[in-house]
What we know:
Elements: E1 8-13, E2 16-21, E3 25-26, H1 29-44, E4 50-54, E5 60-61, H2 63-78, E6 82-86, H3 90-98, E7 106-108, H4 111-117
Parallel strand pairs: 2-4, 3-5, 4-6, 6-7
Antiparallel strand pairs: 1-2
Helix pairs in contact: 1-2
Amino acid sequence: MPSDESRLRIKNQDGVTQIEFIDRNILDEANIQQIGDELAAIIDASSSPRLLISFANVDHLSSAALGTLITVNNKIKAKGGMLRLADIDPQIYEVFVITKLNRIFEIHDTVENAVSSFG
């Protein structure tokens, strides 16, 4: 598989960049690095990024992927932007609760709820 193939599905709607993962399992270190790089490029391209990351297709997430999400969140906050997470599988959400990351991230049940939360 070519390394320049995106691991993300991206669409811009109403000033919000909506991102979906292509992979069901986000476990591979190289893929996580690539996802982090793609997200960083999106953040860098905006003066005040508004990102919504949907986990609708994701079954498994590694701790390295969580670390990348924290980095992404910090970059967005540093630029005065907003990040929302949505459609997280209950088992994955449990990891957010255990690690207390549910207090760091604004998490919504659906993409629609997350979009409306940008106000």
